[in-house]
Design brief:
Length: 120
């Protein structure tokens, strides 16, 4: 399983970015081989549609699970169509959220915002 977290820096102890679509990086953790990689989010500076582009990027990278603070409805629609499970983060640190997820402490996200249109 591959788990993605939008993060501010490319180190494991980084903070989770509050903006899914505009996060500078995605931490990708592979539960099978215990490998962590950081992928630069090319949609972070997009003039619009950053969440949609980020969601497609997640899908294209074979991610099964997203841990995030919040997510827009359009991005959630893409992720749900690809059967990517979206969980609400429990803390500000990426590594703590990975631990909480593996311990079954995170809840599936059920509410999505309308999105922030345009560059913020």
């Amino acid at each position: 399983m591959k788990i993605a977290i939008p993060v501010n820096e490319n180190v494991l102890e980084t903070d989770v970015c509050v903006s899914f679509g505009r996060s500078p990086y995605f931490l990708i953790y592979n539960t099978e081989n215990k490998q962590t990689e950081f992928l630069k989010n090319s949609s972070a500076d997009a003039p619009g549609g950053a969440g949609i582009k980020a969601a497609q990027f997640i899908v294209d990278n074979g991610v099964n699970t997203l841990l995030t603070v919040r997510c827009g409805q359009n991005a959630a629609d893409i992720l749900n169509a690809a059967d990517v499970k979206i969980y609400k983060t429990s803390s500000t640190k990426a590594d703590e959220n990975l631990k909480d997820f593996t311990e079954g402490k995170l809840e599936l996200m059920t509410q999505f915002h309308a999105g922030f249109h345009g560059n913020r």
